[in-house]
Amino acid sequence: MIERARRGDADALGELLDRHRDRLRSAVGGLVGPSLRARIDPSDVVQEAFLRAGRDIASFEGGGEREFLAWLRRILANCLADQVKHHRRRARSCDRQESLDAMIRRPRGPAPRALMARGPSPSEGAARRERALLLAEAVERLPHDYREVYRLRTLHHLPFEDVAPRMGRSPGAVRMLWARALERLNAELEGRA
Asked: Which DSSP category does 192 fall into?
């Protein structure tokens, strides 16, 4: 199954990842300190690790399940470290923020100016419509499965667990398919910018 996943079989990769989901989620829960528990969701960290694993599976050099799990744990540790850094930076910046009420009371401050600002200019509206058209065209050029998972996840806001039966795939496979669809869209839109 590892070899099939390495060759790009999304179902095999999804099954491999699903086998380790609960173990990895528990690992994150045990590593996050009490000060960050309310802000770091273990499921989100595991999901990020799975996306990175899907992106990098071709570079996995191990051959067995134990090596695969060790590789996943290293990815998970990196994702968790990134989350911890992000939340600690955010906490520091929150300490320095001024309350909205205080900003509004300052007549020459940024809040009153923003509240009095007019809507977007006609050229901004035209640029926004053009970007939306480019995105719609790029979505239409996606392969059928990519287009379908994009539609269900992004436009209908369905969770992976609801998309999976509609597409006849596992939730892990749907996650990988969605990540690949987003990568393809980003690559195409960056090429047109």
From this structure: H
